[in-house]
Structures are given as structure tokens and as C-alpha cells.
Amino acid sequence: MKRNLVFAAVSLMLGSTIPLTAHGQSAGGRLDDAGTMDKKTVERVFPSKPIYSPYAGRKFPTRPLFGDTHLHTAASFDAGAFGARLGPRDAYRFARGEEVTASSGQPAKLSRPLDFLVVADHSDNMGVFPDLFAGKPEILADPTGRKWYQMIMDGKGADAAFEMIMSFSAGTFPKQMTYAPDTRAYKAAWQDNVAAAEQYNEPGRFTALIGYEWTSNTGGNNLHRNVIFRDNGDRANQIVPYTTIAPLGSDNPRDLWKWMAAYEQKTGGSVLAIAHNGNLSNGRMFPIIESFTGRPVDKEYAEQRAKWERLYEATQTKGDGEAHPVLSPNDEFANFERWDFGNLDASAAKTKDMLEFEYARSALKNGLKLEAQLGTNPYKFGMVGSSDAHTGLTAMEEDNFFGKTTPQEPSPERATATFVENPKTGIKVMDWQVSSSGYAAVWATDNTRESIWDAMQRRETYATTGSRMAVRFFGGWDFDQADAQTRSPAMTGYAKGVPMGGDLGGGPAGKAPTFLVAALKDSLGGNLDRIQIVKGWMDAKGELQEKVHDVVWSGDRKPGVDGKLPSVGNTVDVANAIWTNTIGAPELIAVWSDPNFNAAERAFYYVRVLEIPTPRWTAYDAKRFGIKLLPGTPMTVTERAYTSPIWYTPG
Amino acid sequence: MMRRLLREPLLHFLLLGAMLFAAHGILARGAGSEPGRIVVTQGQIESMVMLFSRTWQRPPSDEELQGLIRNHVREEVLYREGVALGLDRDDPIVRRRVAQKLEFATEHAEAAEPSDGDLQAYLDLHPGVFMAEPKITFRHIYLNPRRHEKTLASDVQRMLNELNSPASAPAVSDLGDPTTLPLDFDKATASRIKNTLGYKFWKTLDQIAPGPWTGPVESGYGMHLVQVSERMEPRIPALAEVREAVKRDWLLARRLEAGERSYRKLLQRYTVAIEPPRLARQATEAASKGPQ
Questions:
Q1: pLDDT tens for residues B202-237?
Q2: Band of pLDDT at residue B120, cut at 50, 70 and 90
Q3: Nearest to B16 among A125, A199, A518 (CB)
Q4: CA atoms within 13 Å, Cβ hemisphere of A20
Q5: How many other C-beta atoms are found inside a 10 Å radius of the C-beta of residue B261?
Q6: Is some CB atom of chain A closer than 8 A to the CB atom of B151?
Q7: Is B130 helix (H, G, I), strand (E, B) or coil?
Q8: A 559-618: CB under 8 A from B
Q9: Which B residues, 57 through 86, put their C-beta within 8 Å of a C-beta on chain A?
Q10: Which long-range contacts (CB under 8 A, 24 or more apart) does A620-623 make?
Q11: Does B31 sit within 8 Å of A113, measured CB to CB?
């Protein structure tokens, strides 16, 4: 009943800077020594390969780390209101692969651990309680306070707390202790979240990044950002999170960026922000005209946004944000887990003119245009996916989906219940529309806060809709077909190009950029249907264009006369919620060169990988609970990944 | 209607106020909160300044401080009026929030540092939780089934023969099909291997003793020739190796116990009468079986 009420917000983004060193050809050099050497000797002394072991000394990431940059726990006001009981410690334990008891009372466990997690509770109204327990002089000055403090120090904190509660209710609470200003309450909740991250952060095995969500939601229009720290608790504890209510906070992202700058300046730390759910912003997420001023986005906006928001959360439970069928009518895969009814609280319906400013692909395109005008591209972001779950459970596998909110944890009713309904606007969203998505994949060299954050900052990331497929993407001027045949394309990729998130400047005259792309299926997931490269560019007339290229696909399918590749097929047995990997390919690798390259035109290229169809979470619910779903409920899903783009800028 | 109400800024103010109720209202008992009179104390102003300073890394300007104070007064007025109207009662969200806060207070009472004895006892009681995973060092050569459809068996045999004859062993990097799978695993944990190559592959690999090249081993990706060079068996670690993890779990266990204990104690202050639910038949049956 109350579940349709509150509705939280969510989001993500990341970024940092550390150039990758590909393993270098460093053993060359001149032979100044006198004497003669024949060719054979020279080759032995100065082999063409500088080091025998191709793996020695290599510094680039060898496997993607999977995680969630956007998970709420009971410390989030709305999550608690929905009945979530799991706190940040439970959330970390679950993400690390331990079994926990969900708020609905059922056991929950991931199929395999994740590598990292950001608990991103809402900063507004974050859990409140005064820290009576810190041993302040005022408390110690009072005999009762001193007694309680001693009990706490002796490990009897719970008993002390109990006595305090009794004392409150009896009206005998010591006066000296009643000063507690409400600010301490706020601080205590944030510090407890920080403490939980410190406890569960285990470099090399599991990373707990410190973060929170700034939930700008004026008028129900979602401008949420997740704020993620590179730093440890010593720095994070020096501040309190930025909120949205004036005069202390603000709902304008420009003010958030100022707060981020103040944090970095004061503490010497590093922080980034990831926005999400442009689809619920009603045209405000990627503006050309700023909603706060009604004026065109200016140079300062562009520079600040580009600086602080290096990533965008392109897919999550409240819908997919890569592309929209109205904006990309020729993209047959654009219509995916679509949530385009209106804004976050369904108080205002969507109109078509809003879409352009809501989806990642159109924002990447508009960014090219703004860059030409302002000198900086405000929308030069990479991609991640994340859950935005409000359950403390980052459970985004279709066969193990624990919903977005506590009432959506597995039950026979959840697939047929109503999530949001607004009679005034006529908007109704059903729980079956909630998407079991997604995760963030990060090409970090080590599983540490610093390494993951740095990979985010350099945008070497991709979004998945819950799959753990591995996706490589490199751009350069010299990739050739043989590079797709080596045993380890990644080494070639780093040696000859830039990875996802990188830049291509002016290339050799007359040459088109080449791309090395590879995808490896999730070891538990469906096979791969195809790899696509999505190109967006600004043509000579200043018009923005896009084209989706099928680059490599499974089997021996041939594109039809219309250029479309035939469907990979479908092996899903919906009634039994099973499928087979008899179609598709476990791995796809290719080198692709842009056939329509024009060196004078700004462009971006990103990769989309599609799996074969597999059962959607609704199919597992129907089978396991023996229920009949509502007409129109989709029962299969085409899981996918979106990489950060590689940008080409005329030199 | 309820949803709309919840979105009202007014209600947000009221909820905020309600949240302050436990933290502040109770504490301020007897601090002279006359009805019809609002005093913004110096302590409260200091706390506003502190919160601002920690947010912005600088103190507020006079104007900003005035804004904070005005906001505080506004909230206080609305809060008192709301409470007078009983808007805090019978609201599931306020109820839940207040209960949550009490739980937070009892569970988050800092426990004393555990001694080594405490931790050793905890470790002895839960050895499985802290058991070090088996680790395997191995390398593999990937064979894409689509490239060896008819000839897999003979290709495998030929490659194994070559790999295992020291005189003519080819460079490992020259064999196998292109893949982005990692090829060398150095003291890789069982979970890492399962994560990368799948459970089925791990089950087979786990049975292979260090020695020559062998296979094929099947995974979700295809076939693999495998050479295991080292195995480290699972074992119960010494406390020193896992002290932090044991301490973390010990603290968590203490915290949950504390919360449960304090609930039990509070519950003792009440007699609870539950009328028999008029529900479906199963519910009645279930209720009649257990004590509650």
C-alpha cells in the first residue's frame, strides 16, 4: 500500500587520471662497442621482443573488476521507509559473496562475489542519531555520564545504551548531556557509513569505496549524482556530504561541483560524481539550455561538468539510458528496458522533445556540438551500469534478482504489483518494468580504491545490464586484421592504441581510425550475438549524425540487402525459464576500420555487445512461484554492455 | 493521494522535524521549550555553523548564517504545529524511522577492543568462514571448439605430445586460439578461477595434480589444455593472518547480539496481547502449531 509512495533517487559516475603504460619497446639502443657482430648475434643480444616473457613488466589491467557504484541501505531515508533493514555492513558482506538474510527474511547470496561496491546512501536525511558515546568532556563531567562512558569502554555499550534509553523515558537524563546539537546526529550517520567501508575494504580482494548520493529532485525531475571518493576515512570524515536543501545545500549541480572542489582543496583528496536516470529528468540531465537559468550552457558549465563528471550511469533498475527508439529509429536494439513515462515521481509526463537531453547517445552527440562552440565538451563521459537498489543487496542477475526496493524482494506478488501510480498524470509503472540491471565494469590494474577510482577517472569502464562479460575496446591508426588473431589482443591493444575512454587526435593523412574490439561471454551467462560499434559525429553542416555498425557476430550470418544482420535466434524455453548456448559465440574479436571517416569531423565511437536472448527475471518468477504474469510482461532479455567511447578530434 | 502528500515539502519539513524529535526534543526536555516561544540558543547556532563548516570547508557568511537560522525557525514552527495536529502519529514512516533510530543507538554502541583470546575463540568457533581458499598456479591453452570441430581429439593429442616432450616443446604462446581470457594464473584462488573460467572448469582443475600438460578441460568458452605447477591446499589460518577479518566479524556479531538483547529487555516491559488473526486457513493452522 505505502509502497507506491516514496521513491528514491539514484545515480552514478566516475573518473580519474593515470595514463596506462603499455609494455614498452625499451631494449633498443645503439651499439657503440667496437667489434663486429653478425646478424644472428645481434638478434640474440637485441631480440626484436625486448623481454622474453610477454607478461613480465606489463602494467595494464588483465581482467575487468565488476561492482556496483550505487547501492542504498537502510541508512537511506526512503529505503528505510520502504522497510529495508540491511545496513552498509550487510551490503558489503553480500557483495563479497557471503550469504545474508534479506529484509524480507529470506536468505540471499550472489552467484559469485563482486570486486567492489559503493554504498551510496542519500545525503538528505541520512540516518540521524547523536553520538553520545564519544567521551566528550561534558559527558565525563557528569557522574552518570562517566559511568556510562566507562561501561562503553568496558565493552558494555549495549547495556549503557539501554540504561540511557530508560533514563530518557524516566526523565532522569543528566542535564549536562542534553546539549547534543542535531548536527552531531548527522555526522554520526555519515561516519558510521565511512566506518563500515573502512572495515570491509580489503585491498586486493574486495574494495569498499566511500560515497553517497546527492539527490537533486526538484519538481520530481531527477538530477541525481553519486559522489565517490578515492580517499580513505581519514579524509572522508573531515566533511559531511552535500545535501540539496538550501541554504546549506543546493539542487543545482554547479553547487555540487563547488562542494567537490572545496573538498579536494581542503583535504587534498579526490572525488568524482556520476549522474544517472536522465530518463527521469524530463529533459534536464544533459542540457543545452540550463533548466536553472533558462540560458544556454556556458563555458564554465562545460568545463566544470567535464572535470567532475567523467562517467554516466547508463543502465540501472529504473530503466536503460543508452538510446531511445525515437532518437535512433534505425537502431533495432534501442528499445531496451525503456522507462520513458515522465519524471521520477510521475508528476509530469514525458514529451518527445525532452528525450534528446536524457539519453547517453544523444548527449554524447550534443557534446560534440557544444565542444565546437565552447571549446570544451561537457558530455565527454564514459559508461557504467549500477543497481540503485534500495535493499542493501546488489543482486542484479536475472535468476537471482532481489528487486529495487524491499517490497520488490522475491515473492509471488511482486511481478504483478504496481510500483508508481499517479492518477493526475495517468502514469502507472508496474513492478515488472523494473529492470534487473546493472553492474559497472572497471579496467583497473589492482583491486584497490585508488586503482579503481583512477580507472573511472580515465573512463576505462563499461556498463553491463547485469552480465559479467569482458569487453575490450582499443582505438588507433595501425590495427590490422592480424591483431585480432593474436593470443592476447589486449597487449596489442595497449601497445598500438588507446583503450576505451581515450582520445584519438589527428592521425596520418589519408588514414581512417582502426579499432580492436573483443568480448568474452560471462562464464555463467549467455553466448554473444554480436559486437557493434556506435559512431556519432558532427558533419560539415554542423548536423549531428549516428550510425550503428555490426562489426563481428556469431555463426555465418550474412547481412541482408537492407544491411541488417539476421537475428541470432532464440533458445529460451519461457515456461521452464531455461536456455541453451547452442547459438551465439563464447567470444568475439575483430578489427574494424571506419569506412566513412572524414578527418575534419568530430566523432565518438563506442561498443555495444549483445548477448543471445536469455530468460528475464519475470520468467524465473513465473516458473518458481507458479504464477501467471500480466499481459505484455516481457519474458526474455538481451543482456548487453556499453563501453566508454573513444573520441576523435580533428587535430 | 497519500503519495502526493508525501511529496509535499511541508511533509518533508514535518518528517525532518520528527527525526529531530528523538535526537533533540527528548534531550531538550526541561530546556524551557514553552509553547508559543522559540528560542534559538547559542549552542544551536554553533552547531549550525559547525555543520556548514564541515560541508563547505569554511565558516558561513553572515547572510548564510541568517539563512540557516531562518530555516531552523521555519522548520521548528512547522514541526510544532504538525505535532500539535498529531501528524507524527499513525504515520508508518515516522514510526519506522523512530524505531530504526533506537535500533541504531543500541547496535552502534561501541564495543571494547576484543582481546586476542576473544578473537582466537571466535576463529575456533567459525573456522570455515576464515579458511584460506585453495590456490592453484597453472597456465592453459585455449581451443575454440568452432575451429576444431572435427579434429578436436587429434589436435589435442598432437599438442599434448609436443608440449610434453622436452626436446621439441613449442613456445606455449604459439599454440592455441586467440582469446582475451587470462592465460597464466599465479596462485589464483578458487573463487578467482571459478569467476573467470566457470565452476565446471574449476571442478576438473581441482583434480589435476602438478605435472605435465593435460586436458582437455571444458569450460563455458571451449576446451583448454592445462598445466598445473603448484597447488596450495585450503587450511585454517593463524589468527595473525586474518586478525582484521575476525575482528570485523566479531564486532558485527557483538553488535547484532547487543541489538537483540536490548530488544528482549525492552520487550519485558510490555505484555503483548495478539488477537487471533482472521486470515486464511493456513495462517490459522500455522499459528496453532507454534507458540506465536
A1: 999 999 999 999 989 999 899 999 999 999 998 889
A2: very high
A3: A125
A4: 32
A5: 14
A6: no
A7: helix
A8: 581, 585-587, 589
A9: 57-58, 64, 67-68, 71
A10: A620/A398, A620/A399, A620/A401, A620/A577, A621/A410, A621/A412, A621/A414, A621/A415, A622/A415, A622/A574, A622/A577, A623/A575, A623/A576, A623/A577
A11: no
Give the Cα separation of A131 and A314 in Å (integer): 38
Give the torsion sign (CA, A250, A290, A303, A508): positive
A5 → closest Cβ in B6, B15, B146: B6
Decide if pLDDT at A68 tops 90: yes
B167 versus A396: which is more confidently predicted?
A396
- Tell me, yes or no, if B240 comes closer than 8 A to chain A by beta carbon: no
Cβ contact A554:A583 at 8 Å: yes
State whether residue A480 sits within 8 Å of chain B by CB.
Answer: no
DSSP letters, A264-317, are HHHH---EEEEEE-GGGSSS-SS-SB-TTTSSB--HHHHHHHHHH--EEEEEET
Provide the CA B182 distance to its chain's centre, in angstroms: 29
Contacts of A242 in chain B (CB under 8 A): 55
Q: What is the Cα–Cα distance from A161 to A156, expressed in whole angstroms?
A: 9
Does ipTM surpass 0.90 in this model? no
Select from B55, B96, B220 the Cβ nearest to the Cβ of A242. Answer: B55
What DSSP string runs through A595-615?
A: TT--TTS-EEEEEEEEEPPEE
| Interface list for A 214-273 with B (CB within 8 A) | 220, 238-243, 246-249, 259, 262-263, 265-266
pLDDT in tens, A446-464: 999 999 999 999 999 999 9
Question: Dmax over Cα atoms in chain A, in whole Å?
Answer: 99
Closest CA to B231 of B207, B215, B212: B207
- CA–CA separation, A518 vs A607, rounded Å? 10
Beta-bridge partners for A228: A211, A272
